[in-house]
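Sample pair:
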Amino acid sequence: MMHGTEDIEQEKRRVARRPAAQDAPPVLCWFDVAPTGPAEAYAARLRNVLDAVLGLALSENFDDADLPVGSVPEWFTAVSGPRPAEAPEFTRRGRERYAAEIRGGSWELQAWLYEFDPGSGTRGWAWWDLTHSADDGTTRIWVDTWGESFFACDELRWLALVAGSDDVSGPYLAKAERWHAER
């Protein structure tokens, strides 16, 4: 799926704040996530990385060899860089979980950033929202997949785990009403 400039601008706005119910597509996908720490801190880490990379998608030429990483949070560049041992503990644990689940190893920073190339079409999702369950401590990541239940999402799973999660399950497809009922 190609991500045009207007689509990325809308996605960036959704990273910053919950979208209106009337803006939701008929169907969304979600991932259940088990943060290792406070849900608010976890959400902030996710949002900070996505805000930075979507900003790069809007401002940078992806034909260049390397994208600038000054806006990307240091913890994320550390865990995705050549010296992950210098990254915070929560990111290293997520990196280990990802390697165990995916068996493809970890993501290199520039390769991960290039997944957000607006002209690439490899990213099969767009950020929609994040909700929390006070009952069981689960955080739910919602994405727009244009109605698809099977889509490329390893870069999202990487971010979800290294942001401080012990587990990421999904994707699960649901009508948008289910998302809207959650806060």
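Residues 131 and 140 are 5 Å apart (CA to CA).
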